[in-house]
Amino acid sequence: MANKHYKYYQPNKKDLKDDYGDCVIRALTKVMNKEWGQVFEDLIPMAREFQCMPNSKPCFEKYLLNNGFVYHGISNKSGSKRPTVEEFAKQHKKGTFFLRVAHHVVAAVDGVYYDTWDSGYKSLYGYWEKTVRFDSNSII
Fold first, then answer.
1. Is the dihedral of CA 103, 105, 106, 108 positive or negative?
2. Which long-range contacts (CB under 8 A, 24 or more apart) does 16-20 make?
3. Which pLDDT belongs to residue 3?
4. How far apart are CA 21 and CA 13, in angstroms?
């Protein structure tokens, strides 16, 4: 049975076998609505600043902050259970999110999570939520 909250997503046209390990850049392309190469280039200055790989946590955290995202941690209190990616998508039918799970990240937009494989069973450690920005030209 197909999962209605999951959609296959592979914006890296050169990764024909889904084995490049570029989940950070893939997820960022979805939440930023940009091409793979553009997101990679956007991360390079931060990689130089932090002297790490472009898909490293310091790079993507600064990139998300600079682009209007806010981080929400998930509590791991004794007796509580972390939500899964699929549960999160079902509960968040509106909005743009960058989800952090063990050794992976996933994009979720308007109740659907996007990945090269169905990662819906993975437990959330936290997530970044895109906030609405208004500039002086915005009409409210």
1. positive
2. 18/116, 18/117
3. 86
4. 14
Instruction: Supply 116's token pair.
Output: 């090269």
> Looking at residue 78, what is its pLDDT?
79
Length in residues, the chain: 140
pLDDT digits (tens, 9 = 90+) for 109-139: 999 999 999 999 999 999 999 997 655 554 4
Instruction: Name the burial class of residue 109, with classes exposed (0-12), middle (13-18) and buried (19+) by CB atoms within 10 angstroms of its CB.
Output: buried
Contact, 107 vs 99, CB < 8 A?
Answer: yes
* Residue 91: HSE in the Cβ half-sphere, 13 Å Cα cutoff: 7
Q: Are strands 69-73 and 104-109 parallel, antiparallel or unpaired?
A: unpaired
The position carrying tokens 């030209």 is 137
**What is the C-alpha separation between 101 and 137, in angstroms, rounded?**
37
Task: Give the H or E element holding residue 69.
Answer: strand 69-73
